[in-house]
Specification:
Blueprint (H helix, E strand, L loop, with lengths): L4 H16 L3 E2 L2 E2 L9 H14 L11 H4 L2 H15 L8 H15 L4 E4 L3 E4 H17 L8 H16 L6 H18 L42 H23 L8
Antiparallel strand pairs: 1-2, 3-4
Length: 260
């Protein structure tokens, strides 16, 4: 079984904060600051990475992403599931490239919209943040219901368009980080993920097949065991603590963030 949806979401947040964050916690750097981002961009990227970590489950009709948009997302996930099966094409490195490319395309749309009070915003970036935030909020059970996650997502999208308007590179990067975090999470469970070079799959001879390299060609490093195991819960509790601490420290350390 795959890792739980909420755990995927928090792993995306934690991965982004570890790679893009630059805050200091107890006198030690808690992030690699790979892209030299402002505090507003780091927080916005964390929101996007949280939702991006759910994208590979677009092939699962029962996943959070399926339940997030009514008939539209249910129909989409069912169609993808019929075409690719669960834990198939969307759980590959190629899929991460596709998700990132789509994010870059939407983000790069020259689509300016005039919003009352806020003025002119980049609608492509706002739309992308809205969707990712709604998915993340639903998975983490920050809010419940069908409409409320999208209301929160829309608020986040408009806010990001104002406080962090330069989304040219970090927003697609956040989608990539989230999607990769999902693959790593599933790799650590017993079912694993498709062979890294999918659709070119290397399958072991029957005598060489093992839980690490399965007869189907899937690979796994099942340190967490089955989905929902105590080890998975322990890991995600640690990741949630790290994410909450670093996000909180980033916000607290940037009192002028909303003026970016």
């Amino acid at each position: 079984m795959p890792m739980l949806g909420g755990h995927h979401a928090i792993s995306g947040t934690a991965a982004w904060m570890a790679l893009a964050g630059s805050t200091t916690v107890l006198g030690h750097s808690a992030g690699l600051d790979l892209w030299d981002l402002s505090s507003a961009q780091v927080i916005a990227g964390a929101v996007v990475a949280t939702g991006g970590a759910l994208l590979p489950d677009v092939d699962h009709p029962s996943a959070t992403i399926s339940r997030s948009g009514g008939l539209l997302t249910k129909g989409l996930t069912r169609a993808v599931s019929r075409a690719a099966g669960h834990r198939g094409a969307t759980h590959t490195l190629l899929a991460v490239v596709v998700f990132t490319g789509l994010a870059a395309f939407v983000n790069g749309l020259d689509w300016q919209v005039e919003v009352p009070v806020l003025g002119e915003i980049e609608a492509g970036a706002a739309l992308l943040v809205t969707v990712m935030c709604a998915l993340g909020a639903r998975a983490l059970k920050v809010v419940e219901g069908l409409l409320l996650p999208w209301t929160v997502g829309l608020g986040a999208g408009l806010l990001v368009a104002v406080v962090a308007p330069d989304t040219s590179f970090w927003l697609p990067a956040a989608v990539a980080v989230g999607a990769l975090a999902h693959l790593i999470g599933d790799l650590l469970t017993t079912d694993g993920i498709p062979f890294p070079t999918w659709p070119l799959v290397a399958k072991p001879a029957k005598r060489l097949a093992s839980p690490l390299w399965q007869r189907s060609g899937d690979i796994a490093l099942p340190l967490l065991g089955d989905a929902g195991s105590a080890r998975e819960w322990l890991l995600c509790t640690v990741l949630a603590g790290f994410a909450a601490t670093t996000v909180g420290a980033t916000v607290a350390g940037a009192p002028g963030m909303l003026a970016v």
